[in-house]
């Protein structure tokens, strides 16, 4: 703070240096052609792999948001309707009245946890059985009103198979009804969800980003080496500013 003495004040400090131009930046040396091409190639890898990975996550989520499921076909039992490697879009059923002969459904066969996609060739009402504790035999269940109970089943068959499936399938084991078929999608989705597919989509862009960072550090180091005088001038200006402000 400026001090006052006998009604006079000290003369203010005057900056006698030539004014520095405002808004002017130090020009950068152009990057070599190989450096620019390498940067473009690395960013291309980042963008392509990033889009592929995002798509592999977005496709199943899009179908789930529309109350649908997408399954990969692994056999040719429904050729030529669809073949192994295709993807089938399913809609879950809310009631057995949604089922009709001729529809293609995906279901878990009795005694198996592997999904099968076949066509409905018949709808059946079969006895709902239980094991009799006394005799060990299977007997039909009876309701509170004494009426014998039945259970809804579907009889299925692969379009490429000569015979219908051996066992009828209970309605409760049906996963959904086919809405659409996307040729060739199955192999792509299966590969994208595998460990190998994830590695191919994630490792290259990470390596590319690391390489870009190393190149940027090299560019900065090269710029400092090519313009040492500018650095010294900037440092001297800062020291003068500090002295004048004291």
Largest β-sheet summary: 7 strands, antiparallel
Q: What's the mean pLDDT score? A: 83
Which structural category do the helix and sheet elements fall into? alpha+beta
Are there runs of 5+ residues with pLDDT below 50, and where?
none
Global Rg:
38 Å
Helix/strand order, N-terminal first: EEHEEEEEEEEEHHH
Largest sheet strand order: 3-4-11-5-6-9-10
Give the total of beta strands.
11
Q: Estimate the global geometry from the Cα principal axes.
A: elongated
Give the SSE layout.
Elements: E1 4-5, E2 8-9, H1 33-65, E3 68-72, E4 87-91, E5 104-107, E6 116-127, E7 129-131, E8 138-140, E9 150-157, E10 169-170, E11 174-182, H2 185-192, H3 195-226, H4 228-245
Antiparallel strand pairs: 1-2, 3-4, 4-11, 5-6, 5-11, 6-9, 7-8, 9-10
Protein described:
With 246 residues, the protein is of the alpha+beta class. Helix content is 37%, strand content 22%. The chain has four helices and eleven strands, in the order ββαβββββββββααα. The strands form three sheets. A seven-stranded antiparallel beta sheet has the order 3-4-11-5-6-9-10. A hairpin with a 6-residue loop joins β7 and β8. α1 (33-65) runs antiparallel to α3. The longest helix is centred in the N-terminal third of the chain and has 33 residues, at 33-65. The mean pLDDT is 83.
């Amino acid at each position: 703070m400026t001090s006052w003495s006998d009604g006079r004040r000290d003369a203010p400090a005057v900056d006698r240096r030539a004014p520095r131009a405002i808004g002017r930046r130090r020009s950068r040396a152009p990057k070599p052609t190989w450096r620019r091409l390498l940067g473009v190639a690395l960013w291309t890898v980042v963008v392509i792999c990033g889009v592929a990975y995002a798509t592999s996550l977005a496709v199943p989520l899009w179908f789930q948001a529309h109350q649908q499921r997408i399954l990969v076909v692994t056999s040719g039992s429904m050729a030529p309707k669809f073949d192994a490697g295709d993807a089938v879009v399913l809609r879950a059923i809310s009631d057995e009245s949604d089922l009709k002969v001729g529809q293609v459904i995906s279901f878990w066969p009795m005694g198996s946890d592997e999904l099968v996609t076949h066509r409905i060739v018949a709808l059946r009402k079969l006895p709902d059985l239980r094991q009799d504790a006394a005799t060990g035999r299977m007997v039909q269940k009876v309701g509170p009103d004494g009426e014998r109970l039945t259970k809804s089943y579907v009889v299925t068959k692969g379009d490429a198979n000569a015979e219908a499936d051996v066992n009828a399938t209970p309605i409760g084991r049906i996963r959904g009804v086919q809405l659409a078929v996307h040729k060739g999608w199955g192999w792509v989705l299966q590969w994208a969800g595998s460990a190998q597919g994830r590695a191919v989509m994630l490792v290259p862009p990470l390596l590319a980003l690391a390489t870009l960072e190393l190149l940027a550090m090299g560019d900065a180091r090269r710029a400092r080496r090519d313009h040492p005088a500018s650095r010294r001038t900037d440092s001297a200006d800062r020291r003068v500013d500090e002295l004048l402000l004291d």
